[in-house]
């Protein structure tokens, strides 16, 4: 069903055509519907590689979802599409598995945890630019515990209070994310 958004602005489906806009663009795009149907993709030998790619991508999205769950308290700070960035990061971790075959490569976050270093849920309010004191941490995997040490904070020197709020809080979240195969 097509939807009119004003004169000469229609989006949706109309007689085998898809009419749509893209984010950040005012143009209206039209393409004909086509491509293989679900049954063909699932059964045809021509689509064997597509099935392997879909299987691997499923693993990437599951790992990204697990990472998102581990950092749930930070969701309200997001100012961009974090899920897409985590999916891309998971794909990079998956490509590091050189022993696994295409379609069954593992996602070993424990071996490549350094790839998460520097990942931020906000591009405008990066922690290191808002709170300017060194933080040290240790993680004890066997005891499932962590210790975080933050030096004394002089709010006039070490805190960039760009919104001039009367209070601040520091949220520290310890979550676990398993390797996936």
In short:
The chain is α+β, with helices and mostly antiparallel strands. It has five helices and six strands. It folds into three domains: about 1-30, no CATH class; about 45-120, no CATH class; about 125-170, no CATH class.
Describe this structure in words.
- With 181 residues, the protein is α+β, with helices and mostly antiparallel strands.
- It has helices at residues 38-43, 48-70, 82-95, 127-130, 155-158; strands at 2-4, 10-14, 17-21, 28-32, 135-140, 145-150.
- The model has no long low-confidence stretch (mean pLDDT 87).
Class derived from helix and strand content: alpha+beta
Percent helix among the residues? 25-40%
Shape: flat
Percentage beta strand? 15-25%
Q: Tell me the Rg in angstroms.
A: 23 Å
Oligomeric composition of the shown chains = single chain
Number of helices: 5
Low-confidence runs:
none
Name the helix and strand elements from N-terminus to C-terminus, one letter apiece.
EEEEHHHHEEH
Terminal Cα separation, in Å?
A: 41 Å
Strand order of the largest sheet: 1-2-3-4
Number of domains: 3
Number of strands: 6
Biggest sheet overview: 4 strands, antiparallel
Write down the overall mean pLDDT. 87
């Amino acid at each position: 069903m097509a939807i009119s958004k004003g004169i000469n602005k229609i989006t949706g489906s109309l007689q085998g055509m898809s009419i749509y806009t893209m984010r950040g663009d005012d143009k209206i795009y039209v393409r004909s519907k086509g491509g293989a149907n679900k049954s063909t993709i699932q059964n045809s030998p021509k689509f064997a590689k597509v099935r392997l790619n879909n299987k691997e991508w499923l693993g990437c999205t599951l790992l990204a979802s697990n990472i998102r769950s581990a950092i749930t308290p930070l969701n309200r700070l997001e100012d961009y599409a974090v899920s897409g960035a985590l999916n891309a990061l998971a794909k990079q971790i998956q490509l590091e598995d050189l022993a696994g075959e295409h379609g069954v490569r593992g996602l070993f976050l424990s071996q490549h945890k350094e790839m998460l270093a520097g990942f931020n849920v906000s591009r405008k309010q990066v922690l290191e630019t808002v709170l300017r004191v060194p933080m040290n941490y240790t993680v004890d995997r066997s005891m499932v515990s962590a210790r975080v040490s933050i030096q004394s904070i002089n709010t006039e020197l070490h805190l960039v209070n760009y919104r001039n709020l009367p209070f601040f809080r520091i949220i520290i979240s310890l979550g676990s994310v398993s390797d996936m195969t």
